[in-house]
Design brief:
FAD/NAD(P)-binding domain, five-stranded parallel β-sheet, 2 domains, eight-stranded mixed β-sheet, alpha/beta, 21 strands
Length: 512
């Protein structure tokens, strides 16, 4: 990358959000952009998570872009390798390769008030951009808890999102830490080969059967020959999930029936009453993400598996010690402990108009106007921002809604003409966040009696969207200029010169 390159738009990350933004930019006629990727290939979380059994828990035809349908999904719930291959195809189909900058991890982004642009420092050189679209995603930076003695463990340690494929688990004594979406896929995948598997379960999960099957050649041929059938299949999957939303957001007590189905799923595989008691949650289903697996419980019932109903508290040499005092000798520790979701590391690298980082602005909780724009960070927007997550449907739907908002944001800048920037008004951000949090109060995620990764350190739900995907689509269809301050260069500022110490003048302009 040439030093001091300038582009109209810099996209950060090349997962679904980043590639989707790149496609949308090209479809809007914008080609002056780059996609900055810290790794050496595209794929985001579907590149990083390559652990055994990794697959999506959303049906394939819904977990794909509406503008890039794939008639050849091999299974109803496709695996990591198929999703990653899909993203590679999207990259090629839409001509995104020339825009990609691999091995270009963003070190720092600083708002230049004189030039109304972002200064971006990366591992491969510096550049500037009029607009930054941050698509790093909430599932990109693994979280490993601070366990006393872990540094002195003589065996192998890795996170599920950084799987060591060179390490042979055959015959090994393995500790699996966590019972989230990754762990329930890893456990049945490695159970047959390990010598002994000990699952450290701080909180049991609600697990429903995974109704997965191979998509037949006839179905795939039909989807190729008659594209409307793919669209109809996607629409049906979407509609079912839209109808489920009210139970999560307004009537959590209606989920009791679903709990009974989950308990039956467990009872079919787990015959030991003591083990069933360990695995039965004490919170309302849906409070944490409902997990899908038809192999997790059967794996836990195998003689080479132990379930410790307690979290990992300490490591003493090759001995792992649970919070309840249980001690186990192991050769390897695998962490399935999630990601930095409510404290995204990218926020520490973004410096806004007042010289403070986004992390400092968000120290009391993440909030962004319509999940995209943070006050004090002009011409910066995020894909999969605060309160845009889903508990029961496809994040691709939310990403595409945010891409609509991004496209109109850029159109508004064009309409304003000249050098201009949009800065979300604090009052608008607070009003939006207040409405979201008011709606959140009655949801299962807040009332279900659990502690989940949806909640930040203060117990506030800054992750989930408390409504349907169609509601969010309507809310992000257009940019309302009344929610923004329009920034113009200070009088006398030279077009291509920086005047240290001066600042941009904030003026409110009437929306066209």
């Amino acid at each position: 990358m040439a030093e001091h390159e300038h582009v109209r738009v810099a996209v950060i990350g090349s997962g679904f959000g980043g590639l989707g933004a790149a496609v949308r930019l090209r479809r809007e006629g914008i080609t002056d952009f780059v996609v900055l990727e810290r790794a050496s290939s595209v794929g985001g979380t579907w590149r990083d998570n390559s652990y055994p059994g990794c697959a999506c828990d959303v049906p394939s035809h819904l977990y794909s872009f509406s503008f890039a349908p794939n008639p050849d999904w091999p299974r109803t719930f496709s695996g990591q390798e198929h999703i990653r291959a899909y993203l590679e195809r999207v990259t090629d189909t839409f001509g995104l390769r020339p825009h990609l900058r691999f091995d270009s991890e963003v070190k720092r982004m600083t708002w230049d008030a004189e030039r109304l642009r972002w200064r971006i420092e990366t591992a491969s050189g510096d550049l500037t951009a009029d607009v930054v679209v941050s698509a790093t995603g909430p599932l990109s930076d693994p979280k490993i808890p601070d366990i006393p003695g872990l540094d002195s463990f003589p065996g192998k340690v890795f996170h599920s999102a950084r799987w060591d494929h060179d390490y042979d688990l055959t015959g090994k004594r393995v500790a699996m830490i966590g019972t989230g979406a990754s762990a329930i896929q890893i456990v049945p995948s490695i159970q047959p080969k390990v010598g002994r598997l000990t699952l450290f379960q701080r909180t049991p999960a609600w697990v429903m059967p995974r109704v997965d099957r191979e998509i037949s050649g006839v179905e795939r041929l039909l989807h190729r020959q008659l594209p409307f059938t793919t669209k109809a299949r996607r629409g049906l999957l979407w509609g079912i999930r839209e109808l489920q939303v009210q139970a999560f957001t307004k009537h959590p007590n209606e989920l009791g029936f679903v709990e009974q189905l989950a308990k039956r799923n467990m009872a079919r595989a787990i015959k030991d009453p003591a083990l069933r008691a360990k695995l039965t949650p004490d919170y309302r289903i849906g409070c944490k993400r409902i997990l899908l697996s038809s192999t997790y419980y059967p794996a836990l019932a195998q003689p080479n598996v132990d379930v410790v109903a307690s979290g990992l508290a300490e490591v003493r040499g090759s001995t792992v010690v649970a919070a309840d005092g249980t001690e186990t000798e192991v050769d390897a520790i695998i962490f399935g402990t999630g990601f930095h979701v409510t404290d995204m590391p990218i926020a520490e690298r973004v410096v806004g108009a007042d010289g403070r980082t986004l992390a400092e602005h968000w120290k009391d909780g993440m909030q962004a106007l319509r999940g995209a724009a943070a006050a004090g960070f002009p011409n910066w927007m995020t894909i999969i921002g605060p309160n845009t997550g889903l508990g029961n449907s496809s994040m691709i739907l939310m990403i595409e809604s945010q891409l609509n908002y991004m496209a109109d944001y850029l159109r508004q800048l064009d309409v304003l003409g000249g050098r201009a920037a949009l800065d979300a008004r604090p009052s608008a951000v607070h009003a939006w966040n207040r409405r979201v949090q008011d709606r959140m109060e009655r949801t299962v995620w807040n009332t279900g009696g659990c502690t989940s990764w949806y909640l930040d350190a203060s117990g506030r739900n800054t992750t989930i969207w408390p409504g349907t995907t169609s509601e969010f689509r309507r809310a992000t269809r257009r940019v309302d200029l009344a929610e923004y301050q329009v920034l113009r260069p200070a009088a006398g500022t030279a077009p291509d010169e920086t005047a240290p110490g001066s600042s941009a003048k904030k003026t409110q302009e009437a929306a066209a």
